[in-house]
Amino acid sequence: MEAFARTPSDNNISLNFHMNGSHARLNEIPRSNNSHRANNSFSWTGTHVTGYSEVSIWVVVNFIWCGVLFTMGVLTLLAYDRYKRLHTGTNFILCNVICANIFQEVTFLMGAVVVLLRFRAIIPEEWCTVQIFLLLWFSYAANLMISSISVYQCVSVVTPSFHRTLTKPQLIMWFVVPCWALPLPFLFLTAIGSLNEFVARREYLNYCDYSRKDHGLAAYLTTTVFVLLPATVMTLCYAAMMFKMLRLRYLVAPESVVNMEAKCRAMPQQGYAERQTRILLTLFLPSAVFCVAFFTILGVNKTHDNLIYSNPTLFLFVRMIYHTGTPVIASIFAITSRDFREGFRYLLCGRKLRPYPAVTRTHRRRVSHNTELSSFEE
């Protein structure tokens, strides 16, 4: 975890706080290079906490937590690679989400190691620029691809004729590449030039984060473009799928007045729409919980005069939740998938995978509304 503290000593640092609104500036004047060993605690906004030991505990917790998520992500990628039944458009986008999550967790743990190793020293701002840039890029890309899964599911239900013609190169071009590329211009704007918002903070703690201008562009991008906007897109897609499912359910109802031909066309579509809506629900609910918790914490922090920055435990917890929320959502989505569970069972038990049966043209036409393999495998 990149947000950890170093422990300044009273003998080597002179603190001069100048209050500016709800923030405080810390002016550091280096003294001796060896006198910092006399003290192993620091004061965070008036709260006396244990320094190095608390940071060490949180590093261990993050290593365990990120290790579990990393293992789950690797198993998901192996299951997708070896189990042909998982080769669908939704699972392909999910694997890109997991790749972004794995890179994010590695960057996350590298930041924790750097903070632990340089607990007594200033973290180089060059390292902070690289770390925060990569961390936010992978985080933003994963959030966008989570919403991209919902868009793909919505397209497969609302416009099945278009979905059947969608090929794998088109899927990559329309649903994956924009999610990786869109965050880069915004991050370059905040990382270089006059904005330069990625620095090593020295207020109360020494950790890599935005500068004090984080209430401007960087925070706006995080809370709106890459958190609120994907959540809104996911909600709209789920609402559209629910509307289509209810409409199909009405068409196949016994009391419906539509002709038999329309009912026969709607029946296979209804089964597929219901399955895809249930699948998206396992992605929508954890994402909704994450967004509600994220904005609730932001609201409490604003109304209580930056409560997060005055409580070390809460601060570290919030940072860990934000940077590992998307991997948890992706893992829940994979675990709740029946095909993924079967792939995990074959991987972990060491059995030979059952081959996916060949799909003939006649069978493909018959089940075109009930499967997602219509054109993705071609």
Automatic annotation (TrEMBL):
<keyword id="KW-0472">Membrane</keyword>
<feature type="transmembrane region" description="Helical">
    <location>
        <begin position="279"/>
        <end position="300"/>
    </location>
</feature>
<dbReference type="GO" id="GO:0004930">
    <property type="term" value="F:G protein-coupled receptor activity"/>
</dbReference>
<keyword id="KW-0297">G-protein coupled receptor</keyword>
<feature type="transmembrane region" description="Helical">
    <location>
        <begin position="92"/>
        <end position="117"/>
    </location>
</feature>
<dbReference type="InterPro" id="IPR000276">
    <property type="entry name" value="GPCR_Rhodpsn"/>
</dbReference>
<dbReference type="GO" id="GO:0005886">
    <property type="term" value="C:plasma membrane"/>
</dbReference>
<dbReference type="Pfam" id="PF00001">
    <property type="entry name" value="7tm_1"/>
</dbReference>
<feature type="transmembrane region" description="Helical">
    <location>
        <begin position="137"/>
        <end position="159"/>
    </location>
</feature>
<keyword id="KW-1133">Transmembrane helix</keyword>
<feature type="transmembrane region" description="Helical">
    <location>
        <begin position="55"/>
        <end position="80"/>
    </location>
</feature>
<protein>
    <recommendedName>
        <fullName>G-protein coupled receptors family 1 profile domain-containing protein</fullName>
    </recommendedName>
</protein>
<feature type="transmembrane region" description="Helical">
    <location>
        <begin position="215"/>
        <end position="241"/>
    </location>
</feature>
<keyword id="KW-0807">Transducer</keyword>
<keyword id="KW-0675">Receptor</keyword>
<keyword id="KW-0812">Transmembrane</keyword>
<keyword id="KW-1003">Cell membrane</keyword>
<dbReference type="InterPro" id="IPR017452">
    <property type="entry name" value="GPCR_Rhodpsn_7TM"/>
</dbReference>
<feature type="transmembrane region" description="Helical">
    <location>
        <begin position="171"/>
        <end position="195"/>
    </location>
</feature>
<feature type="transmembrane region" description="Helical">
    <location>
        <begin position="320"/>
        <end position="337"/>
    </location>
</feature>
<dbReference type="InterPro" id="IPR050569">
    <property type="entry name" value="TAAR"/>
</dbReference>
<feature type="domain" description="G-protein coupled receptors family 1 profile">
    <location>
        <begin position="72"/>
        <end position="295"/>
    </location>
</feature>
